[in-house]
Amino acid sequence: MANTPKFDRILLKLSGEALAGQQGYGIDPEVISTIASEIKDVVSLGVEVALVIGGGNIFRGLSAASRGMDRASADYMGMLATVMNSLAMQDALETVGVKTRVQSAIEMQEIAEPYIRRKAVRHLEKGRVVIFGAGTGNPYFTTDTAASLRAMEINADIILKATKVDGVYSADPEKDKDAVKYDKLTYIEVLQKNLQVMDATATSLCMDNSLPIIIFDLTSPGNIEKVVRGAEIGTLVTGEK
Predict the structure, then answer these.
(1) What is the pLDDT of residues 86-105, one digit of tens each?
(2) Which of 14, 93, 228, 237 has its CA 20 to 30 A from that of 36?
């Protein structure tokens, strides 16, 4: 494992469920503190870190829409859930001494800056962690797509997608004992095999802009730093094998 970080600027995508821990709903203070400490370790290496957090631990727009709620209204509620998670993560990071800024795609100036690309890049250059809340600000787009879009806008080297499993499998490893883990995949394979890496819009966006993705296990301590240092864990998605 290299001593110097492999990446200069990363976008870390966390699911909302990751913040809920074992309780399954809301925000587990212990879990969010652990994640904040791991992000601090990465920042101390001199890596510029941006974050996008989902809102599934509080409200899922898609599942609400499937139960009869207007999809746009449900998605806006989901975006507000991501802002709640962003503020919680900001608090956890600042508690461990990491300077942060939350930028929201939906304007709410009392609690977050509006999303301004140049300002976000400037914060990163100054060593601040920038947390992008409220998705893209548009319904019908997931936080995966928001992560891909923001990563492109800030010229991130890579998207690190933190999950509860140690990579991408051919099937759900908890349900299928014959599921095979992939070490490397191409964007086309992800789309053709309909693998649940990111949604198709996010994957296509990364493919069109040659932005690599690493899917790895967040629950294993120290994994964020290991990935940043170049350890071959998780699944790497790029243009070619």
Answers:
(1) 999 999 999 999 999 999 99
(2) 237
**Chain centre distance of CA 131:** 10
Task: Find out whether 226 and 217 touch, Cβ atoms under 8 Å.
Answer: no
Tell me how far apart the alpha carbons of residues 210 and 188 are, in angstroms, rounded to a whole number: 12
Per-residue pLDDT of 140-149, as tens digits, reads 999 999 999 9
Question: What is d(CA 112, CA 134) in angstroms, rounded to the nearest whole number?
Answer: 11
Judged by phi (left if over 0) then psi (alpha if -120 to 50, else beta), residue 210 lies in left
- Angstrom distance (rounded) from CA 208 to CA 28: 37
Which residue has better confidence, 63 or 120? 120
Domains and CATH numbers, the chain: 9-238 (3.40.1160.10)
Q: Structure pTM?
A: 0.95
